[in-house]
Design a protein that fits this description.
The protein is of the alpha/beta class. The protein is 37% helix and 19% strand. It is built from 11 helices and 14 strands. The protein has an 8-stranded mixed beta sheet. A hairpin with a 6-residue loop joins β13 and β14. The protein is globular, with a radius of gyration of 20 Å. The two termini are 17 Å apart.
Length: 324
Amino acid sequence: MRIAVTGSIATDHLMTFPGRFADQLVADQLHTVSLSFLVDNLDVRRGGVGANIAFGMGQLGTRPILVGAAGADFDEYRAWLDRHGVDTESVRISETLHTARFVCTTDADHNQIGSFYTGAMSEARLIELKTVADRVGGLDLVSIGADDPEAMLRHTEECRTRSIPFAADFSQQIARMGGDDIKVLLDGAAYLFSNEYEKGLIESKTGWSDAEILAKVGTRVTTLGSRGVRIERVGEESIEVGCPDEEAKVEPTGVGDAFRAGFLSGLAWGVSLERAAQVGCMLATLVIETVGTQEYQLRRVNFLERFRKAYGDEAAGEVQGHLG
């Protein structure tokens, strides 16, 4: 099953200031702030919704096709993704802009000052999925994740026009989208991903009820945080899957992306929706135990042992053959 993953590609530059921002601010001079903080360290992490999901799928051996835009500084990141089983040949490289970047400084009180540079991500709207499909011999599913908003709309319309099944996954972009755009992006989706809060926001912005939205998509997948995930389809009983036990709760960034990577990999393997959700929850658990969205290691024996403990021998037996 050939799955294309569209979405942002970015790097995070995270710095730590040992003092307190509040101590550096003069109350009557805030209109002319000019400050420079000497930081202790710099942590550069790979990120972006599309890249995170594709990395997880690559770890599971499903060879996803990453579709997004990056800058000329993407070479090292590309090599990393290629090495971890991701097809990066359909990433557009901007001739003038750098890869999207989040730069953030955190002080001793955990206050943060940050900036997000969109950069090359804005050129994702120039990518045509037909070119991608022609290169790989057709697409069975396109996951449309948070990206340049115009790119998300273009990819969705192209999937409809070319009868390519697609998954709608607004994620961080839902906050800036209006109800009309959300309606366009979800109507006819084979899968709709969201967390509980986003689910309510989708309903509020569109004016559609839960039942009305469910009637417009094939499968609605709602992540429930530590309670796992709920899967709903019209006329069928909902499926609820819990999370495996965590060995540690280190850092939650990228957990949702990891779930999607596992779920989409399950679809690629042809297992049931319940099994796909279980794989997603297991992968998400690995991420929450690690600092960074792509720093976890998928050791197959350990993965299967923990998967078996959480979901039983039958579930592990079905997944084992796909993991190798």
